Amino acid sequence: MPRIDPVPAHRAGPLTKFLYRYLRRRFGAVPEPMAVTAQHPKLLLAAGVGELAVERAVRVLPASVRELAVFRTATRIGCSWCVDFGTMLQRDEGLDVERLKEIDDYRTSPRFTELDRLVIDYTDAMTDLPMTVTDEQVAELDRRLGHQGAVELTYMIALENQRTRFNHALGITAQGFTSGEACRVPMP
Fold it and tell me: pLDDT tens-digit profile of 26-59?
């Protein structure tokens, strides 16, 4: 149960009701972080516009690389909602969700490529507090992904840090978008 109640559709304003209909059609349910954010309608609008803009902008990296970094961020912070939702997104994109069960063994698992390992190491370094990103990591990712790819990866990891910390702080947990396809992350 979230620490702040989600806004039910019957109490939502017209714009929020419209957003809820769109989200139900798209994902099968209103994502709980959006329903909690609806307590602040102007912030909900800003978040929704921002998410749509990012979704349309991220086109440089392969989805498998981008979503792996986002998923790893969620597991490192411990956001079960993000793990649940992220697994659904990866499944819906036709990505290998089975490998997510082995993400903690990424260094030795044959399911992860050398690039995947670099991306996970970078994700971990960005998510550490304090951050432990090195010049060498950025240079290697820039060499492999190009400037746009390295910037896109960094942006997505930073954005997922924001999302997961928001959800974790407000006690938003797995909503049931998947059926145990990836490890559940317990709330500490």
Answer: 999 999 999 999 999 999 999 999 999 999 999 9
- Count Cβ atoms below 10 Å from residue 107 Cβ, excluding itself: 9
Q: What are the residues whose beta carbons fall under 8 Å from the beta carbon of 48, sequence distance 6 or more?
A: 19, 34
Is residue 187 within 8 A of residue 78, CB to CB? The reply is: yes
Q: Which amino acid is at 154?
A: T
Q: Enter the tokens of residue 49.
A: 């516009």
Q: How confident is the model at residue 180 (pLDDT cuts 50, 70, 90)?
A: low
Closest by Cα among 43, 72, 87, 90 to 161: 72
Contact indicator for 177, 67 with CB cutoff of 8 Å: no
3-state secondary structure 79-94: CHHHHHHHHHHHHHCC
Locate the domains of the chain by residue range: 11-57, 63-169
What pTM value is reported for the model? 0.93
How is residue 116 written in tokens?
């995947």
Query: What is the architecture, at CATH level 2, of domain 63-169?
Result: Up-down Bundle (1.20)
CB atoms inside a 10 Å sphere around CB 129: 7
* Burial class (CB within 10 angstroms; exposed 0-12, middle 13-18, buried 19+) of 49: exposed
